[in-house]
Each structure stands twice: as C-alpha cells, then as structure tokens.
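Closing statement on the phosphoric acid mono(formamide)ester sub-project.
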Amino acid sequence: MNLKGRDFLKLIDYTPEEIGYLIDLATDYKAKKKNGIRHDEHHGKNIALIFEKTSTRTRCSFEVAAHDLGIMTTYLDPVASQIGKKESIADTARVLAGIYDGIEYRGFGQEIVEELAHYSKVPVWNGLTNEFHPTQILADFLTIKEHFGHLEGINFVYMGDARYNMGNSLMVGCAKMGLNFTACAPKKYFPDEKLISNCREIAKESGATLSFETDPATAVKNADVIYTDVWVSMGEPVEVWEERINELSPYQVNKELMEIAGENAVFMHCLPAYHDLKTGVGREMGEKFGRDSMEVTDEVFESDRSIVFKEAENRMHTIKAVIAATI
Ligand code: CP
Ligand code: NVA
C-alpha cells in the first residue's frame, strides 16, 4: 500500500482497503508506543498545524504523533496567522508547502481545506471542517475493532445532529467499511440527500445498510454502538441552543436507551461532551434551560459501557498512521 504524497481530506477519497490499511498501521504504531519501541522514522521532517477553530484532542494528537515520528511541528492558532485575513488560502498553501513536508488544517467550509490541498505540493490533512472530520472516524473504527474484533456487520446508531461533520463522516465510514449505519433524529437533522445517495452506492460494495429513523427506541434496538456528538458545533451561533435543546432532547443518550440496545452495546462520542455542568457552556446552557446534561447523561458517560477515553487515545495512534503513510 503506497499512500505517499496523498492528501487526507475526506473518507470518500479513500478505498475500504486504504482505510483498513490506515487502521492496521495505527494498531502497529500503538503496539510500538506501548512497548517503548522507537519509531522516529521521519526524523528531519516538519509539519504545520493550522487551527482556525479550537482543539484539545486533534492538536495534541498531531503534536505527539509527529514528535514520536521524529517530525517537528509549528502550531498556527485561530488568531496569530495571516490566513484568510491578509493572505489567501492559495498563497498560504504555496508558502507553507515550500517550508513544510505536510499541513494539517482545521477550520470552516470543506472547500477551504480542498483549496489548500489543491495549491499545496505537500500532503494536506483535514483536522475537522463543518462537513467532515475524517481522522476522528479512523480513531472510532480502531476503537470498535479493538472492542468487537471486527467492523463489518456492526450495528452503528448515531443519535442527534446527523447533518454535520460527525454524522456525515460516520455515515461515509460505515458505508465504506460495511457497518450498518442508522441516523436517529428529527428529519431535518438527517445528512444531505446527495451524500446519502452517494453512500448508498458505496454501501452496495461493502454490504452496509443505511437507515434513517425518527424514533429512538426503534433505532437503538440491536445496536452495538450508540454514538452521539454535541447539539451545537463550533462556529454555530449561541442562539441555536434553544431550538436544538427543544428538538434534540428526545434523542439524548440515556440509561433507558442503552437498556433497549442491550447489554453488549457501547457508548461512543468524539468529545468534548456536555454530560454535566462542569464546563462553561454546559453550565450556562444547563442553568438557562434547566438541564443537568445535553446529548448524553452523566450516568451513561461515566458507565462501564462508555469507551470514550479509549476512543480519545486512539486519535493519536490513528493520526500518526495518517502522517506516516502520506508524508
Ligand atoms: N474530537 C475532537 O476533534 O476533539 P478536539 O476538538 O478537542 O480536537
Ligand atoms: N461537531 C463537533 C465536533 C467536535 C469534534 C464540532 O464541529 O464542534
């Protein structure tokens, strides 16, 4: 498998074999890391990390993964660079590609990271856009594979706002890798029709099924994985909280829902999560709307069915695989 020089912008661009290879490569790097085996095989290289939105997991994963591979990093934060304000994406791409061996980009529209990649002669990696979060899916699938031993045939249910980066990317990933994907939300939160029909074509190859449900109890019956994400994503206005709470509350992942799914079902979340009032936004919105949690209850989040911290650790191992395979 040779992925050298390839961008990693969205999973649609990768074959199931290539996605499987990246997950297996992450497993190898994870074993090396756990056994203290050095793997600084890309010593002397440099990468730029552009973040137009904030991050904990993705930034730390890129920095640690790069360091383990012997690669130096430069972090460009949401305010300090010239990008978009004094310098176009096309010019930024050509400047950074002359200095660095790879560029990570987190920001707004998918078209921005696509443009960056178009003008860059070095690989560009998508660290989250409004539409897609492909490195997160590799971590999620590595975690599912570790837990269940396989991906094919897993019943995967996504609760909540399925039309944004996580819902979209998980649907594509499931279609590619043969997991049965169900999105459960009011209809307006289902992914874009065009993406759904694209995924239906992809699913014909893998044998995956795609379903769209409005009733939580029906959706989670026989689920292996129940996944959710925040109801209001980065970059969205604070005013949408009220509507989201009203419309998505019935889709909160709680104990009753986990019980319908059965005792083998696990809970997953890309994080960060509003499962209690210990965050600034969680507290403010919780107090305003009289709630102690949003998309998942604290009880489920802290339960032994929750594998969210294994999932978070796997961000680093999978991002390392993406960098090492493409740089
Ligand atoms: N899951 C995820 O991308 O987390 P960060 O926003 O902290 O990077
Ligand atoms: N949908 C969330 C994902 C965070 C990892 C957001 O875009 O804020």
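The longest helix spans residues 16-34. With this model delivered, the sub-project is considered complete and its resources will be redirected to Aim 3.
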